[in-house]
Write a structure and sequence with these properties.
InterPro entries: Sialidase_sf, WD40/YVTN_repeat-like_dom_sf, Xyloglucanase_GH74. It comes from marine metagenome. This is Sortilin N-terminal domain-containing protein. By secondary structure, the protein is mostly beta strands. Helices cover 4% and strands 40% of the residues. It has 2 helices and 27 strands. The strands form 7 sheets. Strands 1-27-26-25 form a 4-stranded antiparallel sheet, with no helix packed on it. Strands 2-3-4-5 form a 4-stranded antiparallel sheet, with no helix packed on it. The protein is globular and about 50 Å long.
């Protein structure tokens, strides 16, 4: 088994987001939950890194599937930032453009459509609380049709509260899934109307008297759709483990075989092998070779087991990067034992 190695000497706050370019996998970005070191970039597959931008606490990150020079990231204090020259210069696009210049709310998740890369979605909390408040608050949904240059608010998810992840369905850029403090929800009309939480188990747990007293939401942090088969969906909840659907989200079952914790963070399918998925948790990283039915622990070499963000190489499911509370680690043949 390959062990995790530190990808570099980069140390910052929590690494909240990592993304690998689909069109040039040597290009990687990593965002941090820190005011003075927001966004890092590597142009050599994670061997070396440099700080390329500073704004505020990063939340979401997205690289254009068609052009590695176009990158967008969200943060909790300022406008959504965009570069079109590979990180050399950045411009705020949502939150200080003419249409939303007075809109000063925490922006959270962001995602491109993989097969229609001009289309991007992002979300922002209506309040300034940054989430964690329950019952749910509304979250505003914004859409761009020009790779993030300009934006329009297209809808409101009334019961989402803080949106953690956005995934755009392959073949239908109007169909988006979000994992949020308000559970797992979807929109079929480009963010205009919303389903409400689709995992009944989470709603039942949220009604538990103790959870009501503690204001615990039915929170789902990660969601992903199996490449080439959008009917298989994995949803990583913050308290109750993994949920799996094989019918496009109509029904759900817990899928925790092999997991040693129920506190999950991000989940990702591998593009190169859709049967492979990884999930980050309070207790390290777990891998599935059967599209999320069962899981195996892969923690050798990790100094910190609290793992937040994850990115999988687009052409090799065995090359993975994860972010912890202060470091980036990789399983990568070229990095093995580099130290």
């Amino acid at each position: 088994e390959l062990k995790w190695e530190r990808a570099s000497d980069v140390m910052a706050g929590e690494f909240t987001a990592i993304e690998i370019s689909r069109s040039n996998p040597n290009i990687i970005y990593a965002g941090t939950d820190s005011n003075d070191m927001t966004m890092y970039q590597s142009k050599d597959g994670g061997n070396t890194w440099k700080l390329v931008h500073v704004t505020g606490h990063n939340a979401g990150l997205a690289i254009s599937p068609a052009d590695p020079n176009i990158v967008l990231y969200t943060n909790l204090e300022a406008a959504v930032q965009r570069t079109m020259d590979g990180g050399e210069t950045w411009k705020g696009v949502v939150g200080n453009d003419p249409e939303t210049q007075n809109y000063n709310k925490p922006f959270t998740a962001i995602a491109f459509s993989t097969d229609m890369p001009d289309i991007v979605y992002t979300s922002a909390l209506r309040s300034d609380t940054r989430g964690g408040i329950w019952p749910a608050e509304p979250s505003d949904i914004f859409k761009s049709i020009d790779s993030g240059k300009t934006w329009k608010q297209v809808g409101i998810c009334e019961t989402c509260s803080s949106i953690q992840t956005i995934v755009v369905k392959e073949g239908d850029s109007n169909f988006i899934w979000v994992s949020a403090d308000g559970g797992l929800q979807f929109s079929k009309d480009g963010g205009n109307s919303w389903s409400g939480n689709v995992i009944p188990y989470l709603d039942e747990k949220a009604k538990d008297p103790q959870n009501i007293r503690e204001h615990k939401p039915p929170k789902v942090i990660g969601v992903d759709l199996q490449p080439g088969n959008s009917k298989t969906i994995l949803a990583a909840s913050s308290e109750y483990g993994m949920f799996r659907s094989t019918d496009g989200g109509l029904t759900w079952k817990q899928s925790n075989s092999g997991l040693t914790t129920s506190k999950l963070h991000r989940v990702k399918f591998a593009i190169s092998n859709p049967n492979v998925a990884y999930v980050t948790t309070h207790n390290g990283v777990f891998k599935s070779d059967d599209s999320g039915k069962s899981w195996t622990e892969h923690n050798q070499g990790l100094k910190l087991k609290f793992v937040s963000s994850i990115a999988i190489h687009p052409t090799d499911e065995n090359i993975v990067y994860v972010g912890t509370l202060n470091e980036i680690y990789t399983i990568h043949p070229e990095h093995k034992n580099r130290g």
